[in-house]
Design brief:
It is a single chain. The protein is of the alpha+beta class and about 150 residues long. Helices cover about 25% and strands about 25% of the residues. About 30% of the residues are buried. It is globular. α1 packs across α2. β5, α2 and β6 form a beta-alpha-beta unit. The strands form two sheets. It has a five-stranded mixed β-sheet with strand order 1-2-7-5-6.
Length: about 150
């Protein structure tokens, strides 16, 4: 079973309704250590810098961990909402996103800037995945098959 980070309150990481799996907002804490990804701290432990790419990868990895508890993976994501504390991080987050979804269809996405996020997160994501076997009785297409069926030039 995948180890997940402890939520900040009493709620599940995922909830399945029919063929849809809803993912609660995921941050970049490592479930083994509780440490936040990509932080530079001064000797007193105050955050003095962060690496948005490391944080983004930590968030996406935690999303996939949560999906695995439902027998799913990144290919099952159909929609993701990204929360950034500053749009200055948008380009670097996009680069990490593109690498993470390089081998499968990317889900739809909305990105918004927020004033603050819980803990020491500078990016958080929530998502909706589809369990295609439960919803449709079909498997997942590969990236080329999906593109040929859904994108026309």
């Amino acid at each position: 079973m995948e180890k997940l980070t402890k939520p900040f309150a009493d709620y599940p990481h995922t909830r399945q309704v029919g063929g849809l799996v809803f993912l609660a907002g995921q941050g970049c804490r490592d479930p083994e250590t509780g440490d936040y990804a990509g932080l530079t701290k001064d000797p007193e432990g105050t955050v003095i810098a962060y690496d948005i790419s490391a944080q983004t990868l930590g968030v996406l990895t935690n999303m996939e961990r949560a999906l695995k508890t439902s027998g799913l993976d990144r290919r099952h994501l159909v929609d993701v909402t990204v929360f950034l504390t500053t749009m200055d991080d948008f380009e670097a987050m996009n680069e990490c996103w593109d690498q993470f979804f390089a081998e499968c269809p990317s889900p739809t996405r909305t990105t918004v800037a927020v004033k603050q996020l819980p803990g020491k997160n500078y990016v958080e994501m929530k998502g909706i995945a589809v369990d295609t076997d439960a919803a449709l009785g079909t498997g997942l297409p590969d990236k080329e098959e999906f593109a040929s069926e859904h994108f026309h030039s």
